[in-house]
Amino acid sequence: MKSYSIKNKPIKRAVRALALFSGGLDSILTVKILERQGIDVTALTFVSYFFTSEEAKKSARENKIRLRVEDITPEHFCIIRKPKFGYGVGMNPCIDCHLLMLKAAKYIMKKDKYDFLATGEVLGQRPMSQNARALKLIEREAGLEEKILRPLSAKVLPKTEMEKTGLVDREKLLGVSGRGRKDQIELAKKFGIKYYPTPAGGCILTDKEYSKKLRELMAKVKNIKPSDIALLRLGRHFWVRPVRKSESPEPEPSSWVKTILGRNHEENLKLKKIAEKGDILVEPKDIPGPTALVRGKRNKDVLDFAKKLMLRYAKKTSEDISLKITAG
Question: For 26, which of 64, 87, 120, 197 could close a Cys bridge (C-beta 3.0–4.6 Å)?
Answer without folding.
Answer: 120
